Amino acid sequence: MAGTATKTVHDIFQSMEYGPAASSSTVTAQAWLDHHSRALGLFIDGKFVRPADRRTRSLMDSRGGLVCSTVCAVEADISRCVSSAIQGFEAWSGLSCYQRSKVLLRLASTLGQHGQSVTELCDMCQAPISSSTLVRMLQYYSSWAQLRDTLITNWTPLGVVAVVVSDDCTLYSLLLKVLPALAVGNAVIIVPGQSTSAPALLLAQLFMAAGVAAGALSVLTGSDMSLAADVAQNPSVSCVTYSGNKQDGVNLCKATAGMGLPVSVSPNVGATCPIIIFESADINSALDDVIETVFKKKKEVHWVLCVQESVLDSVVARLQMRMVGLKCVTLPSNDARLLVDTTVQEAQRKGATLVPSCAVPSAGVQYPPTVLCGVAPSSPCVVTPSPGPLLPLMTFRSNTEAVTLGNHSPHGQAASIWTEDLTLALETAKSLSVGSVWVNSHPLSDPCFPFSGHKDSGTCTDGGQEGLYQFLRPYYTSALPRASPVAMDYTKFGTDAPEVIIPDDTAGTPKSYSQLIAGKASKAESGCNVAVYPQGGGSVLGYCPDGGQKDVRNAVEAAIKVQPGWMKKSPSARAQSIQSLAKGLEGKRRDIAASISSQTGLPMEEADMEVELSIARLSDWAAYCDKVRGGTLPVPQSGSGFSIPEALGVVGVVLPDKQPLLSMVTMLGAAISTGNAIIMVPSEKSPLPALTFIQVLLSSDLPAGLVNIITGRRDQLTKALANHSVIKAIWYWGSREGCQYLRYTCTSPLKTLHLFCQTDKDGKDGNRDWTHNSVLEEMWRNAVQWKSVWIPTA
C-alpha cells in the first residue's frame, strides 16, 4: 500500500511493548464481603460468630480504602474456641486416613467453584495467591492424609495446634502450616495477621462446606500479636507455630516462655537473600529474572545481587537497559520514604553508584527501583535493608568468595544461583547455609519442598514430608505437661554461688575427675570443683570440675574448628569412627558399669545391662550414618528437585538424670552421626558415668573437639550455652526455670530448642523411654536441618 513503511521482523521485535494488563475484577469478593456487611466475625465451631461489645480492626486495601472490619477476640472467645477445637480434634482425628484425605480433595473441588472469590479477596488484602497454588497444596496434603499411617508409622497428632502469622505474612506461608497440621489429624486454631485475616475466614467457611469437622478449624482475629500469647496460655493448646517477621516471632517466644508447650518459628519475612551470578551464567536470563523477582513481585525478603567481577560491566550495562521504564513503587509511609532516602545517601557517601529506573520524585511515598552498585558487605543497605525497591550489588572474584558473600547475612532462608556449570552450581548450593536454593530460576514455591531456616531464619522445617513432623509426636510419649510461667529474674539465672566443699577425713581422699574440652582432659577455668554424691545420699564419691562460661567458650572454639571437616567426611568414615567408639565402650564396660552402680545405686547386673544397651545404641548410630538420606522430590514442573539433610553445626545438650549413660550415648550418636559437633553437660545428680566415659573418648579416633563434656552446676552451664551465638540447638532436660530461661533468651540468634522439664521428686525426663528403638528416628530428626535444591530443565 502506498505510503506504508515496511517493517522487518527485527524492527517489530525491537519496538514490541508489553500489551495492556488485564483489568482486575473484585466483584465476587465484594459480593461475599457485602453478604457479611463488611464486618467479619470469628469462626468458631464451624460457623461465623460475632460477639457483641468487641473492639474491631479495620482492614485497608493498597489505596487506603476499607475492605472490611474484623473482631478482636477476648478471653471468653478463646475459651469457647479451644473447647470447640478439643471436640473437633476428637472427631477429626477419629476419621480414617482415607476419610480425611477425601475431605481435603473435596475442598480442592470446592475451590474450583469459589477460587475466584479467594483470589480476588487475597488481592484486595495484599496477600496474593493463585487458586491453582491452593489446589496444588490441597492435592499434595490430601495425599499425605491418605498415607500418614502407611509412611509415617509410630507417630501420632499433637492435638490442638495454634498457627500464628504476622501482619505482613502471605497466605501461602499460613497454609503451609495449616494444611499439614490438618492432614495428620490435628485441630487447628488460626491466629492470622491483618493481611490474611479475611482470606483465612473465607477459607475456613469453604473448609466446613467441604466436610471438615466442626471445631477442627477455627479462626481468631485480634488487634495485635498479643492474641497469640493469650491463645497459648490455654492448657489445652498443644503446640504453637509461627510464620512472619522475626520481631513478632521473638516477642511470641518471650511471651510463651514457661508455658511448657513447643513453639516453632519460621521468620520468612524480611530476610536478606543472595542472588549469585557467575561468569558462566546466561546473563540475559539471569537479569530478566532479577528484575522480575526484585522489582515486580511483592517482596517478602530483601535480595542482594552478587556478580563475578569478570562480567560486572556487562551486567551493569544490561541492567541499565532493563531498568528504563520501570514504574515507581509505592512505599508504606512517608517515614519509609525518608528511610530509603537516608539509605541511598549513605551508600553514595561510601562510594556506591546508582542505576535508577527513572527520576526520583521530590516528594510523596513513591520511589523508583534502584540498583546500588559497589556496596560493601558491611554497608547498611546490606546489613539492615530499607523497605524500598533497592537492590545492593556486590562483586566477587572466586567461587569461594561467592559462597562467603552468600553466607555473610545472619539469615539463611534462600539463595538463587546462576551458572551453566552444573558442578559449580551443586558445589555452591551445598556450601551455602540456606534452606532453599534455586539454580538458574526465580524463587519456586511448592509444598513438596522441605526447607529449614538455617542460622537465624527459623527453628523448624516446613514443606514436604519433613514438615509434617512438627505436628506429630512419637506414639510412645505422652503430651508434655503444661505449666504456668515462673516469676523469675532472668539476669540472675545461673548466678548462684557454688556449694562450699568441706574436707571429710572419714571418707579418705575422693577421686578428682576431669572434664573433656578440645580433646583433652582438663580442669575448670575457674579452678573450682563440685562434690559428687550418690543419688540416694551418702559420702562423697569424688569431685568434678565446676565448669562455666569460659569452659563453654573454649569448647565451642574447638568444636567450630573441627565440625566442618567432620561434616564433610563420608558417611562410611563417620560410621567407622562411631563403631570404634562402641568397641571402646565395650572394653571399659566394667569400669563404667561400676560408676553407674555407685552413682545411681542400681545393682551391678542392671548397670551392666545399661552399658550393654549403650554399646548397641552406638552401633545403631554407626549404621544410621549411611542409611538415612534425602532424595528427589516430586516437582510438578519440568526439572529436578532434591532435598538434603544437613548438620546443624554445634549442638549443646544438658543431659537427663534418668539412665545417664544410655541417654548420653543416644544424643551423642544422634549429633555426631549427622555431622554435628556436641557439647554435653552431664546430669548434675549423676555425672560419674559421663566422666568415666571420657576415657573411652580419649582413646577413640574422633577428632579432638568434636565431643566436649563440661561438668558443673546445671543452671550456670545452661546460661553459658544459651548466650553463645554459635550454638545452633540446645537439647535440655532440667528445671522449669531452665526451660523458661532458654525459651525467653534464645532468640538472638534463634536457637532450635527441645525442652523437657524433669522434677526432683520423680526424675521425669520428658517421657522418653531411652530403651525404645523409635527414639533413634526422633533424635535423628532433631539433629538435622533440611535444604531443597531446584534445577529447572527446558
Whole-angstrom Rg: 29 Å
Would you identify the CATH architecture of the largest domain? 3-Layer(aba) Sandwich
Ranges with pLDDT <50 over ≥5 residues? 16-23
Q: Which band does the percent of strand residues land in?
A: 15-25%
Residue-averaged pLDDT = 90
Portion of residues within helices: 25-40%
The level-1 CATH class of the largest domain: Alpha Beta
Q: How do the strands line up in the largest sheet?
A: 15-17-18-13-12-20-21-38-32-31
Number of domains: 3
CATH superfamily of the largest domain: Aldehyde Dehydrogenase, Chain A, domain 1
What does this structure look like?
- This protein has about 800 residues and is α/β, with parallel strands linked by helices.
- The chain folds into three domains: about 40-270 and about 465-475, 3-Layer(aba) Sandwich (Aldehyde Dehydrogenase, Chain A, domain 1), CATH 3.40.605.10; about 270-455, Aldehyde Dehydrogenase, Chain A, domain 2, CATH 3.40.309; about 515-630 and about 640-760, Aldehyde Dehydrogenase, Chain A, domain 1, CATH 3.40.605.10.
- The protein is about 40% helix and about 20% strand.
- The chain is built from 24 helices and 38 strands.
- The strands form eleven sheets. It has a ten-stranded mixed β-sheet, with helices on both faces. The chain has a five-stranded parallel β-sheet with strand order 9-8-7-10-11, with helices on both faces. A five-stranded parallel β-sheet has the order 35-34-33-36-37, sandwiched between helices.
- Helix 10 (about 285-295) crosses helix 11 (about 310-325), helix 16 (about 550-570) crosses helix 22 (about 715-720) and helix 19 (about 605-625) runs parallel beside helix 20.
- The radius of gyration is 29 Å and the shape is globular.
